[in-house]
Amino acid sequence: MAAIAIVIVSHSKQLALGVRELAAQMVQGQVSIAVAAGIEDPENPLGTDPIQVYEAIASVFSDDGVLVLMDLGSALLSAEMAIEFLPEAQQQKVYLCEAPLVEGAIAAVVAAAAGRDIHQVMAEARGALLAKATQLGVSPLSVVTDNIEAINPEFPTKEIRLIVSNRLGLHARPAAQFVGTAARFQSQILVQNLTRNTGLVRGDSINQVTTLGVRQGHELVINATGSDADEALAALQALFANNFGEDNLALNSPPAFHHEVTPATHGELSGIAASAGVAIARVVHYQPTHITITEYHVDDPESEWQRVQAAIHTARQEIQAVFSQASLQIGDTEAAIFDAQLLFLEDPVLLEAAYGRISDHHINAEAAWQAVVDEVATSYRTLEDSYLQERVDDVVDVGQRVLRLLAGNLPANLHFDEPAILVATDLTPSDTARLDPTKVLGICTTSGSATSHSAIIARTLGIPAVLGVDAQVLHLADGTLMALDGESGKAWVEPESHILDLLAAKQSAWQTAQQEARATAHQPAITRDGRQVKVFANIGSINDVQVAVASGAEGVGLLRTEFLYLDRTSAPTEEEQLEVYQAIAQILDNRPLIIRTLDVGGDKPLPYLRVGFPEANPFLGWRGIRFCLDRVDLFKTQLRAILRASVGHQIKIMLPMIATLGEVRAAKVILGEVQTELNQAGISFDAAMKVGIMVEVPSAVAIADQLAAEVDFFSIGTNDLSQYVMASDRTNPRVANLADALHPAVLRMVQQTIQAAHAAGISVGLCGELAADTLATPILLGLGLDELSVNPQSIPGVKQAIARLSIVESEAIVASALQQDSAVHVRELISTSVIPPA
Q1: Could you tell me which of 481, 444, 449 has the C-alpha nearest to residue 465?
Q2: Residue 560 and residue 577: Cα distance in Å, rounded?
Q3: Packing angle between helix 118-126 and helix 101-113, nearest 10 degrees?
Q4: pLDDT reading at 345 higher than 70
Q5: What values do phi and psi take at 149, rounded to 5?
Q6: Three-state SS across 754-817?
Q7: What's the predicted TM-score (pTM) here?
Q8: What rounded mean pLDDT belongs to the chain?
Q9: How confident is the model at residue 207 (pLDDT cuts 50, 70, 90)?
Q10: Is 766:747 a contact under the CB 8 Å cutoff?
Q11: Mean per-residue pLDDT, 749-768
């Protein structure tokens, strides 16, 4: 529980209790809140009692501070008198705050729960007027800066000036990193775009930061006021120093198309070339469900605010699901678009504005939410920067998602029975990410641009797209034949035969090139000096395995079984699991399938499998094999399903998060018990099925020789191993750069693991994100890995990288890499090594 406490003093007991209930729900009981309200007079219950105030303060007193919020009149006098009853040492720790009662209490408890100090909690309470100030035309910036100057005199404001070097400036993903970093510090961060002469805005607001219109070459001034100002500015400066992790040369920008301008033919439409490729198919219109909003008066604004919070909670879960799926389909870099959408839902300025509209005007949740989203969208549209104007799509996308949930509407149907060209006014990034490239052969819209997030996703999915065509296309009947060329930016309605012949020839040539690429991907990955390295896929669903096989996977090196346990209220049954494992094995057609047993906890909690108590360090807590060994019922159910599915297939079991020899032996005992039970029941299974472990904990590396004697194979999980070796949470922007799998310390752990495995005669693979980084391929080959397991879309590139290398030169690079002093120098070493071009 947070140490800072809140006391609410009011003439009305009902009002105070209502405010406490609302505030408590915001922080799930993390902050002590006491109430001193009303008087014991049934005839006239309104009033305040100094003794009652004193008792309330004493009941929650904390040396870290007590913040007292009051309504007017005698409430202030009672609070002042109550403080005099306290011992002198305690009086210094009690602060009377003039912030508004309802908004101030909410802002104060949220700040207290976040671990802010008493002065920062007071600043947040006072700053709760921000939404009202904005609506009433008062400059909200003065509210913020006045608070800092007034309450933090002991902390001088620190300032840095930075030039933005990444090519697209603070677009959605870098802005999300900036806000995520700023929000983790206690200091208040303010930022100003000097190049555009903007005012100062809050660094913890995704919308305010983004609407600064920061582009490459712009100069920013960043102020930090608070106890950790220097650390905050250093962390922000580090983001700029490495271009927010972006490669300026490798950004997924629209292709530069060169084509001859030809006279328009019958039925020809011109638009924007957004995603290359040719599509010829029947038209299917997509019209997102229009949500009609009616504003009406509500008597209970608190319940409306709870509706908004519930919708935001569900929207967050939906976006996280989209992010997970998009990561597999289009890669983590482009999927980070949805990270920015998650931050939009956490934007304090947006939430304050929504809460203010509901509580001040007593209007319904839908109307309030729509109004604030419209305001944000309008602020983007008024920017001079065309790239930032296009971010309206993301604002509208996430805004509509919440609105749909508030209205109780189902998601729009984007599943087509037959292959088609999708025609629409526009597509949101979420819509585009849900498209099946085998059914949506092309996209034709009347709006949009080649640099929109929807266009980026379409290119990554390989769906040809022509955007910004004439609106007449919206009047075409479903089933009308259409052709489009995403390279020239043209579309044809009921194209003439000679146009069809030209496009068919172009399509055939493109398909031949694609087939050649796929054929290469389906060949073994063999180095120039003859060493074969198996390339497997990491998957998390049945759909993923189909993509993996089509991409050239030689098997599945990691089946994450957690997807079976998500989006439900109870664990999957043995039969449900058996059906899925058998289906995946069937698609693999006797290729190896490594099934990792349930790996929950840490960053992957399940609502119905709660730990039962809060864990201060969930990454060091009850997760992976530790959980399964304690929940033997769940573990046995999964093992039975895996064993039953093993008949006639190459299935292997892999145990996650192994830290000790005892864990492996305990798991093998349970596996033996399940095998005995199946034998007694006359149920077949592969008695020779191999058992391996994930090596992702430093202790497992240290005793790798002992573990290798107990199991049949190792798979190194560099995502977790790197954060455990470097003692840095990879989800924390302040230290995430330390959790780099190419750091020599991590690479030495990988080397030690491989040497122990090979000495024991067992194989060793690597299934972390490092395996998909082709820059790292020479390191991984030189270390002696037998197999790499990557996301399906990375398979062709990894196989090509292996084919360009030799083991001899890779071993030479490794020898030097292990002697470097940082991951940066390892990358420089690889980049300057002589590797034949693709």
Answers
A1: 444
A2: 12
A3: 140
A4: yes
A5: -65, -35
A6: HHHHHHCCCEEEECCHHHHCHHHHHHHHHHCCCEEEECHHHHHHHHHHHHCCCHHHHHHHHHHH
A7: 0.51
A8: 82
A9: low
A10: no
A11: 96
Cα distance between residue 662 and residue 626, in whole Å: 11
> CB–CB of 124/138 below 8 Å?
no
pLDDT tens for residues 189-199?
A: 999 988 878 88
pLDDT for res 247: 53
| Mean pLDDT of the region 530-537 | 96
What b-and-e string marks burial along 421-448, b requiring 16 or more CB atoms within 10 Å of the CB?
A: bbbbebbbbbbbbbbeeebbbbbbbbbb
- For residue 721, which of 814, 791, 657 has the smallest C-alpha distance? 657
Nearest to 175 by CA among 236, 103, 114: 236
Q: Where are the alpha helices (DSSP H) in 285-410?
A: 301-330, 332-335, 337-346, 348-361, 365-381, 386-389, 392-407
Q: Assess contact for 206 and 347: CB atoms under 8 A.
A: yes
Which of 380-389, 540-549, 588-597, 794-803 is predicted most confidently? 588-597
Q: Which long-range contacts (CB under 8 A, 24 or more apart) does 606-615 make?
A: 606/562, 606/565, 606/566, 607/569, 608/568, 608/569, 608/570, 608/571, 609/565, 609/571, 609/634
Question: How does DSSP classify residue 524?
Answer: -
> Looking at the predicted structure, is the pLDDT value of residue 730 above 70?
no
At 680 the pLDDT is 97
Collapse the DSSP code of 535 into the 3-class scheme (helix H, G, I; strand E, B; otherwise coil) and give the result: strand
Distance between CA atoms of 607 and 714, rounded to whole angstroms?
Answer: 30
Which tokens hold the place of 578? 């058996």
Run of H or E including 120: helix 118-126
User: What is the reported pLDDT for 86?
Assistant: 82
The SS3 assignment for 275 reads strand
The separation between CA 92 and the C-alpha centre of its own chain, rounded to angstroms, equals 43
- Cα distances (Å, whole numbers) of residue 551 to 100, 542, 683: 59, 15, 35
| The two three-digit tokens of residue 751, written as one number | 């080397």
pLDDT at 672 over 80: yes
Please name the helix (run of DSSP H) or strand (run of DSSP E) that holds residue 517, with its range, or none.
helix 497-521
Contact 82, 57 (CB under 8 A): yes
Please give the positions annotated as active site.
Answer: 453, 767
pLDDT band at 122 (very low <50, low <70, confident <90, very high): confident
Cβ(420)–Cβ(440) under 8 Å? yes
Tokens of 702: 């240290």
How many Å from the N-terminal Cα to the C-terminal Cα in the chain?
57
Quote the pLDDT of residue 583.
Answer: 94
Listed in sequence order, the residues at least 6 apart from 463 whose beta carbon sits closer than 8 Å to its beta carbon are 275, 277, 279, 435, 437, 440, 441, 442, 443
Cα distance between residue 323 and residue 190, in whole Å:
29
Residue with tokens 């641009």: 449
How are beta strands 66-70 and 5-10 bridged, if at all?
parallel
Please provide residue 70's backbone torsions phi and psi, each rounded to the nearest 5 degrees: -135, 155
3-state secondary structure of 498: helix
For 420, the token pair is 């088609």
Under 8 Å CB-to-CB from 778, ≥6 apart: which residues? 805, 809, 810, 813, 814, 830, 833, 835
Residue whose C-alpha is closest to residue 695's, from 750, 623, 769: 750
> Strands 534-539, 440-445: parallel, antiparallel or unpaired by DSSP?
unpaired
Nearest to 347 by CA among 407, 400, 404, 395: 395
Output the CA torsion 604→600→576→555 (10° steps). 90
**DSSP assignment, residue 474?**
G
DSSP 8-state class, residue 363: B
Q: How many residues are listed for the chain in this entry?
A: 838
